[in-house]
Amino acid sequence: MKKIFISFFILSIFTYLLLSCSDTTPSIITVHPALIYEYSAINSKPVERLSVFVQPNTEVERFLKMEIENLNTGFTWTIYEPDIIESGTRSFVGSPVLMPYEKQEFPFGEYKLTYTDVASRSVVKKFILKKPASFEKNPIHKLAYKDIDSKKVAKDFIFDRVVLYDENGEIIFYGGQKREFLIIEEVRKYYPEARVMRKYRMVNDNSCGILLAPIYLPEYINKDEEIEED
């Protein structure tokens, strides 16, 4: 009888702890919105998309849906099948490919984000999408690609990142400029799996960015080995 009581007691404590962990009321630690202008080619117009990720205080597996509403227009975007990003011990959930309404642009201003978990409990967080100073007089659609690439315009996009993709379009590197990227013909010497390289230019708070046209990387040829073979 004593053993049964102890086992039942331990089971009760374990069940309580388990339910307590999974039944935590959701809250949002951080919100990371970014308005992205993406060029598919140097002679194309940029495609606008919105990336929004949140870091919840609960397991991202308990995600049910996320609604994002612009408070000026009432336009709403709902995410049911999110992307999950792991960074160390932190997990982020959201989508990098929210598209504007047809023939519209993403409105700047205040947005309301509603995060709902599998227990249908919601938490609300607001964020502001700010227009970069560069676009106050000259919208990006009116700027020449070569001027953006050479930094003659959009000068508040001061931080450069490099993105490398493999043959399946998966990102294998995202980070700052390195000497390995200066000579296009040698990039695959250091990153053999890379097939495409793109530059990502962003403002200082990463709330807006420009993803420049893809550069298709040639196969690396070791000229020293070729000379030796001859």
| CATH top level class name of the largest domain | Mainly Beta
Shape: globular
CATH topology of the largest domain: Immunoglobulin-like
Return the average pLDDT rounded to an integer: 86
Structural class by SSE content: alpha+beta
Order of helices and strands: HEEEEEEEEHEEHEEEH
Break the fold down into its secondary structure elements and pairings:
Layout lengths: L1 H21 L5 E11 L8 E10 L6 E8 L5 E4 L3 E5 L2 E9 L10 E9 L4 E8 L15 H5 L9 E7 L5 E5 L11 H4 L5 E7 L5 E4 L3 E2 L6 H7 L1
Parallel strand pairs: 1-12
Antiparallel strand pairs: 1-2, 2-6, 3-4, 3-7, 5-6, 7-8, 9-10, 9-11, 11-12, 11-13
Which terms summarize this structure?
230 residues, alpha+beta, Immunoglobulin-like, 2 domains, nine-stranded mixed beta sheet, four-stranded antiparallel beta sheet, globular, disordered N terminus
Textual characterization of the structure:
The chain has 4 helices and 13 strands. With 230 residues, the chain is α+β, with helices and mostly antiparallel strands. The chain is globular and about 65 Å long. 17% of the residues are buried. The model is unreliable at 1-21 (pLDDT under 50).
